[in-house]
Batch of 3 targets.
Target 1
Amino acid sequence: MTDRLAQLSNHLAQPSDPTRLDGQVVLITGAAQGIGRATAELLASKGAKIAINDLDKERANAAVEALQKAGHEAFCYCGDVMDVKFPPRLIKAVLERFGRINVLVNSAGFLNDAAIHKMTEEKFDVVMKIHNYTPYRMIHALSGHWMDPANRAMTKTIINISSTSGLHGAMGQINYATAKAGIIGLTKTVAAEWGRYGVRCNTVAYGWIDTRMTKPPDPDEKVVIGGQQIMSGIPLNAKKWRDTSDIAVGRPGTVEDAAGVMLFLASPLSAYVTGTCVECTGGRYM
Ligand SMILES: NC(=O)c1ccc[n+]([C@@H]2O[C@H](COP(=O)([O-])OP(=O)(O)OC[C@H]3O[C@@H](n4cnc5c(N)ncnc54)[C@H](O)[C@@H]3O)[C@@H](O)[C@H]2O)c1
């Protein structure tokens, strides 16, 4: 057997693992808990270096400590990602620490529900800001780094988060449903404009994933944005939403279920997938 053939047969016998992310730098907003944190843990276990952002410093630090204890490289840069001046600062901090960014996951978010007749400008506005303006500003802040011809060959992937509310509408969520539909158009536009720079951009529309956001409201669990106190949680009496009979697999999703899709979209397994919205819903609203 020639050297070349020997090399080839060796390569075929031991294919590299397409789920590995060794040396890749992943930045996740809202990663102190929930879907963002589970994604940080899974992607770190595949070799990625992790930069965490969140408003909640205590939980963000705990998430970073757990990653470091497990032998992974991680740090957090806390702050309100909705602040218009914050995204460029966050990108700069990650570049100073790790030298590059390969994957951006825009996960920071919250609900601020009200029936249409009770919705206020303030509640509508803050939800549009976190789920549309903020991902746009994060992506805009990456332009310089990702347009740089020196980074042409580097892996560059964005994952945004939509929801069944954005795909199908949802009672009490006129603000959230509007924003989560909007993020799909944003995603497709980034995929169309930046494909030529080697950037892939996708959205995941989750159904019911069991996190603080979907547990029954707890007075201690809230985000405070510009003086607005925004409670987390979905009331227990949201009967239609809490009924699992229309979920094909018959249960809410776990954060691990949610993170699995993130790994697929961050890894070379999805090298030819861009501009799409993957539904991770357990088969709800088929
Ligand atoms: N859980 C679900 O069923 C579900 C379904 C569809 C979509 N989503 C989306 O998934 C994403 C993550 O939600 P989750 O369920 O993990 O919620 P979560 O409440 O567990 O985590 C969200 C995190 O975002 C952080 N955050 C909020 N505003 C921030 C800001 N301005 N700056 C920095 N950090 C901020 C919070 O502090 C929190 O740690 C959100 O975009 C949400 O809309 C969730």
Target 2
Amino acid sequence: MNSTDVCILIPTLNEAATIGQLIKDFKQEGFSNILVIDGNSKDGTGQIAEAEGAKVVMQTGKGKGQAMIQAFELIESPYIIMVDGDGTYLAREARSLLRPLLEDSADHVIGNRLENYSKGAFTRLNLVGNHLINMFFDVAYGVKLKDILSGYRAFTLESVKELELNKTGFEIETEISVECILKKQRVEEVPITYLPRSKKGATKLNPVKDGFRIGSTIYRLAKMHNPMFYFGIIGSIFILTGLFTGIFVVIEWWSRDITHNQLSVLTTLLIVFGLQMYIFGLLSDFILTLHRQTVRLIMEQNKQKK
Ligand SMILES: Nc1nc2c(ncn2[C@@H]2O[C@H](COP(=O)(O)OP(=O)(O)OP(=O)(O)O)[C@@H](O)[C@H]2O)c(=O)[nH]1
Ligand SMILES: [Mg+2]
């Protein structure tokens, strides 16, 4: 592999404090093909990156996700390393991310931050949020990944072209991880160092708002992969509410001889609707299994023809 076969892709929004050094570090590691996709930074990030020899493209829309999607359209190099511009990841670890791709044991490599992070790199809220999101992802997709939100990744151009990406904000890493699973790509995780953000550059991530968006992305995308999980959650909410009102109705009738007619009807509706959601889930699961079997058969037949 020639080092220009690897495109270092850096999304930036006001990262003047760190971008220059980051580009220098990657160049020192032998990577000269560097693409900065900038969100119209106001602090001179683009100029610094250009002066350091990176190709700088201004994003046409808003958000990290939109920037990444736009950049994937522009890249022609067979390997891509995606890294944040805030200096929290180390250029010298790039080769360990590339290794599984070069050995052809993976299509997509995630740098796992959660095994070796520096003190202060995660706030307590971010750390708990990351663990919860990884657990939720495991339940929804049945795949144990340790750090689906990592911003340091390596993948082949071929694999990223396969992904259908639409998320414009910080949900992009989640969507990439989900799409890799749906497209049956080989995903590997490699432990990396994670450093605290420079005090000079402010975070663009709102842990509560973006955390919620990420959680809901995992949930909504699960509809096509694990419908029982998707409909089961809605069903459970209705059944639990129904049980709650139902228990209240029974207690009132038993202890005070009061009959709540309206609440009894509501209880029945809630439980019936909840059970229906479970049935939807089961049926969708059944349809999906049949669909997967059909796709597998078609693929096998196509292979035999070749
Ligand atoms: N082009 C572009 N880049 C963005 C945008 N928002 C964030 N970024 C960049 O995406 C990278 C990740 O953003 P961060 O704010 O560091 O988010 P984070 O790493 O999840 O959060 P921290 O732990 O606070 O660093 C950084 O390099 C940002 O400059 C955007 O709207 N457009
Ligand atoms: Mg960051």
Target 3
Amino acid sequence: MVKGAPGNKGDKTGITRRRFTLGIVIASIVGAFGSLFSLLKVLSPAKEGGGYITTIKPGDRLVFAKGGKVGANIMVSSLNVGDAVLAYPEGKSSNPANLVQLIKLKETDFKPPTDIDLTDKGFVAYSAICTHLGCTVSWVKNKKSPDVSYTECFCHNSIFDPARGAKVMGGPAPIPLSQIGVKVKNDGTVVFTSDFQGPIGPQV
Ligand code: FES
């Protein structure tokens, strides 16, 4: 009998090996997709029905989300005019949809459509999740003129004006970052005073 011909014992062994190898490859691919899906679940904010769900409540204190002071209360003295930090409500950092950018401007800098009633002592806060595809936004500080600093998403260069309700000044973001109320308390901590005023997260 010719080696490798149908019916040959060696050929059956070859077919079994090929099936076994194919099974391992398929299992590996399925496993890789499973791992990728799990990773995306961790990186993506909680969603329900296409919307991002936050658990911020009025009265929640803002804490640092990045840097050497992660988890520490943000105080009124923590920011100068032209500064901004990423912040979470205290004890609620496990939900990325809660991430905000807290910004300090001159009180006289705010223009419509900023909701002035949701600002305090020059502090204003917006969702830190870009409305294009959901990257975290960054702060671009103008050292010479701090009051003309702005928010930018470096994923696709959307630019938002923090003094004008985070209005989109450039790039593909379809809508502004949603404002959320903040207030400075007597003890110097900063707390939320409202829910987000509009949709948060990607809107495309
Ligand atoms: S995700 Fe922000 S500009 Fe695209």
